Structures are given as structure tokens and as C-alpha cells.
Amino acid sequence: MSNEAATAQAAQPAEAAPAPEAIPHGIGASLPHADARAKTEGTFPYAADLWAEGLLWAAVLRSPHPHARIVSIDTSHAREMPGVRAVLTHEDVPGTPLYGRGKADRPVFASEVVRHHGEPIAAVAADHPDTARMAAAAVIVEYEVLDPVTDPEQAFEAEPLHPDGNLIRHIPLRHGDPAAAGEIVVEGLYRIGRQDPAPIGAEAGLAVPRPDGGVELYLASTDPHTDRDTAAACYGLEPERVKVVVTGVPGATADREDQGFQLPLGLLALKTGCPVKLTATREESFLGHAHRHPTLLRYRHHADAEGRLVKVEAQILLDAGAYADTSSDALAAAVAFACGPYVVPNAFIEGWAVRTNNPPSGHVRGEGAMQVCAAYEAQMDKLARKLGLDPAELRLRNVMATGDVLPTGQTVTCPAPVAELLRAVRDFPLPPLPKDTPEEEWLLPGGPEGAGEPGAVRRGVGYGLGMVHMLGAEGADEVSTATVRVQDGVATVLCAAVETGQGFTTLARQIVQETLGVEEVHVAPVDTDQPPAGAGCRGRHTWVSGGAVERAAKMVRTQLLQPLAHKFGMSTELLQITDGKITSYDGVLSTTVAEALDGKELWATAQCRPHPTEPLDESGQGDAFVSISFCAIRAVVDVDVEIGSVRVVELAVAQDVGRVLNPAQLAARIEAGVTQGVGIALTENLRTPRGLVRHPDLTGYALPTALDAPDIRIVKLVEERDVVAPFGAKAVSAVPVVTSPAAIASAVRAATGRPVNRLPIRPQAAVVTGR
């Protein structure tokens, strides 16, 4: 039995035909997404659209308790229901029963203990989705309910929630002189809430059994080879007998697929011998996938009388939820960047990631770095206020530059134009004040007919400086492989880098167009028959996969030019390809790429692997990061200080991008990241009283809408190329997410004089009494 997802057709411009030179082409052009029209028209195939002959439907029974001992599981009633084809529990996992992205500590199905609300207990396959859901509900589980541990501070003293204990990782960073002290000292306690990635489409997938006893998984995976290997280990199969085919990904700002969703799907297909489809409800999506780590941060900053930092002391506690996932990576980023993009000669940071009975936390864009940015920028505001300095001036006195040293002991060798970025947003003209007229009421916090009064509105201006690392860290082997093939004047790129909305397929087309002068370029669909390219996060596909495509394209270019160079007795380096034409430096040779190809089939495969990194040692020291990206944001907010409502008026952004590869795409990524940060700052908080997810839906979880998005002004893009990166480009989407919540909180402080030490900002935190 075979099943294939439909492929999206490349969108063609609907406008009048422009002059040839106006058509976007190659690096630096705003080439549109190939799938833009299909997605706009609703014809793009996502995982939820898949179908196969003889399809069965799956449903998963999840725990209603955050912590409980499983006394018994009775599946007999579910198995006897008409139309039910299989009911699986932990006893039906033939291979490794544990999995996890960072550490394999999470069971496919809970067996003895339930550790979080929504943990899978059983899975059902039936001939109708309603039957599957009813059968799952018919599985009888007897629980002995236990008291949940939901406060991460209590996890240190609580009974172990997991065989591996409650402590996942502890990083004690030691840098400089512990006896150092400053004349000015400020302290703060900060809390960051639990953000859900809230993907556009909930998880969905299709599993199809193969004649060789293996299985094919059709998923919106962002890391197909890791998902394949995890599934194969769970199923007790060799990796080559499990194939993951990537379907359309409806956006990803985190690990897109919950592996706990994927694994039962394949098990049911293998058990029944039929294709099985599972489409999660929004509630299941909230319960299953990883969230941003809720974080508790304690800070003490020391500065001299001029405002220059002397020492930073901090304690950072990440709530990992029930399982480790990528919490170790998030903690490393939080500890390493705990002082921000500032020169700090002495730093002493304690970082912990602990297990609780809260929902699992994991990779969400800017993990670790976002939480500490909110805290250290609040500390800088406190210092400025205590010293009577302008907040921007205080920051300028402390910003780092290329050649400075991180608290981890690593020298910043990449471009670090932090001062330039800050000056750009500081000097950008402020937006005008809204007019006090009825037609301008929508500009007030709360919108038209809101409860706010113009006389209670105060405007505030604040700043945020953020930093993130790119690619994996602490010794992660980042490698990607790509093949470029040219035949009949058409180029094809094969690379297992998943298009998650970040624009990799567009970039791959531009690279090949630039290198080979071939106008028509196609990027093949992704599956695990191709060599691995790694996960689609931290800008790795722009850097590593884009680098692999560039190297392969250059190898094909050499194959194309060598016969011509040999014929004219010159080196291939003396030939150039521009606008589909091949010319020599002296003008003797001039031909077209099409003529040079003349029916030939040329191809090459190449890899890209950045320079190695190393784990942080027992003192938090080490060259742990490949490169770092920086951002400065100035926020302007209007706050109704009587009711605490906040309207973000404008966010001015300056960012170091290395090199602009696609201007329109880059601007869209920055704007999307900034808007995601607005949600973190003002509305998004997945509430989990006593470990229970409250309102796991998009009515109870307040995502920012288009009406909540402020004016976003990209005032400066610093193109100082990172010499170790392909094309010199840096990742752009994570650092605005990291920086904008801190800038918004800073602006609310400026408007209200309140400390604002919690994100999202509660209305009561912005209320000013006794005005």
C-alpha cells in the first residue's frame, strides 16, 4: 500500500510581465515563497489533509491527573466495542519504552506513575474517529492520586518524581573575583510565565505499514531523522525500516511535533496492518507538546558610581515539567547569557533545571535567553534609576563589542555591534502622541469604548538589548548534506532541511540561481531517505543547510565551467556567471549557461559543518557557542494607570544580521518574532494551578491578534558579515523574540514607576495608586 501527500505548486506572479531584469533572482533579492499562493488559497497540503485506502482513526487516552500512581488499566470494554481494531498500553511497546529529545526519560505510555496532566495512558485505532474517541474513554484506569509537586523550589526537597531524580542539571558559573563589589547595588526577583508555542495547526499525522514489516510516518516533522530514529527504537525496528515523510508544516516556533503523539500512531499501524491517522484536538495539543520554561530569577547587580558594571550575581531556576527534554540546553543558554550583551568582569551565576508535575517544557524560540533578558534588563533599569542616568546611556556605558569576553570565558569573535544598534533605536524619532478626540479613541489602551480615560494614560519609553546563540551548543555536531542536480536547464536541490516558514526553500533556490545562473530551481520534498540535515531551529538551516547547498552548487559550477576553461586555456576562476551568461575576464568567452549545459546532467553532493564547540565545565567555562546574534529594541507604550491596561504603540528594532539574503523575508521574520514577544510580554501564560492545565484552548489562552500588533519599525540592519558563516549571514527570528518582552516591560516601568517583575505583565502591576 502506498500513500503520497500532494505537492504544492510554485506560485507564479499574477501581475503584468515585468522586464527580465526586474524578476527577483539570486542572493539579495526578495524572491517570493514558492508555496505562497497555495497557502494563501488554502490548497497547500498539510498533515491533517492526508488520506489512504483502508484508513483507521486513532485516539489517545490521557491522564486527568498531574500526579498519580496507576493501580490498574482495564482495556476489555474498549476492545469489545464494534469497530475497534486495536487498543495499546505500555505492555504493547516492543522496543525502547522511553524517549526524549535531550534525554530518553519519558515513557511512550505511562505504566506505573503519571507525572503530568495529559500524559498518554493508552491509544486506540478504530474505523471511525468517534468510535476511536469513545473507545479511548472506555479504557478504565484506576488511579491512586498523589500530591503534585508544582513549585520548582519545592522540587529540591520533594520525593523523587522520576527514577533519575528531580534535578536535571546544575550549572555553577564562576568568572572573576568573588570578592569584587560595587558602590551601587540593586536586587530583583523575577518570574516568567509558561508560553505555549500555539502552532497554527494542531498535530496530525498518518502511519502506513510497509510490506517489509516497517512503517512510513507522514508528519509535519521539523527534525525527521531524529524522529525516525526515536520511532525505530520504540518499535523495535532497524532505522531503515522506518521512513518519515515530511508533510506541509503549518508554522513552527518550537519543536513542531510532539513525539509522544507520533509514536502511538506507528504502533497502531504496525499492530493493525492498516494505515492509521491521528489528528489532535487543540486541547490535546496544549497538553502534549513542550512549552517555554517558566523561570524564577534572583539578581544582584554591582556597579561603580559611573554606572559601569562590576559584578553580577544571579540564581536561575527553570521549571522543566515532568521530563528533561531540552532543558539542559535551555539552562546552558540562560546561564551563559545571564549578564546580557554587557561587559561584566565578575559574574557568579547558579542555574538549575528541575522536574515538577507541571506540563513538560522544551525548545521554544529563544529558550533560556528570553527569560534572562527580561531580568537583566529590569536590573539595568533599576541601576539607571538609582544613579539618575538615562537608561540608554547606562546601557551604552556597558555594552560589549567584538573581542570582549563572555562570563563563560569565551571571546566574542563574531560581529557584535551592540552600541551601534542601541544608538540607532535611541535616535529614531518617537511616534506622535494620539490626539484627544473621539475618532482617536481606538488608540487608547482598551480600544474603542474601553474603560480607560485619556487623562489616566501615561506614555513610557523603554529599551531592551538581547542576544542568542546560533546552531547547537556545547559540542553538538551540526552537519547538513545537500545535493544539487542540473538537467535540461532545470536545477533540483535535495536536502532534508524542513521548510517551517523560515524560508529555507526560497533561500536554496536563490543560492543555486546565484551560483549557477539557472532560473528554474526546484527543492525536492523531504524524507528520511535523504541524508540528515538536523532540526529546523536556531537558524541552522540558513547557516548549515544553506552552506551545504552553496558548496554543492559550487561543485556543479566547476563541472560546468571546466570544459570551457580547458578549451580556452584558462582557469575556472577567471570565468563568471551573471544573469544566465558565462563570460571570461577578458571578454574572449561569452556564452549562455543553457548552451554550456547542452543536455548534460551535472550533480554534486556536499556537506557543511561549522567549527566545533565544547561543553561548559564544572565552573561554567568553555567555548560553547558557534556564533551569537544581537538585537536592540526601543518600546513605546501607553498605559492607563487606573486600570492597568497597556497598548504597545511602537517597537523600533535594530539588529545585526550579518548579510541580508532576502530583504522581504528577513523583514517578515523580524516582525513575526517581535509580535511573538508582545504575546510573552502582555498576554500569553498557560495557567496550571496544581499542575492542571486550565483552559487548554485558544479561547482561554490569549494569543496576540493583528489588532494587538504594534507598529514595528526596522530602523537599522547592520550587515557586518560573520566570516565563519556561509554568506556571512546570521539567524534573525529568535533574537527579536528574546528582546521585545524586556523592552516592553522597560517601557511600562518608565510609564508607571512600578517595578514590573513578572511576565506577562498583569494589569495590577501597571496600576498607579495615589496619583
From TrEMBL:
Residues of the Aldehyde oxidase/xanthine dehydrogenase a/b hammerhead domain: 41-147
Region (Disordered): 1-29
Gene3D superfamilies found in the cross-reference section: Aldehyde oxidase/xanthine dehydrogenase, a/b hammerhead, Aldehyde oxidase/xanthine dehydrogenase, molybdopterin binding domain
Record InterPro entries: Ald_Oxase/Xan_DH_a/b, Ald_Oxase/Xan_DH_a/b_sf, Ald_Oxase/xanthine_DH-like, AldOxase/xan_DH_MoCoBD1, AldOxase/xan_DH_MoCoBD2, AldOxase/xan_DH_Mopterin-bd_sf
A Pfam family assignment: MoCoBD_1
Biased composition (Low complexity): 1-22
Protein's recorded name: Molybdopterin-dependent oxidoreductase
Originating organism: Streptomyces glaucus
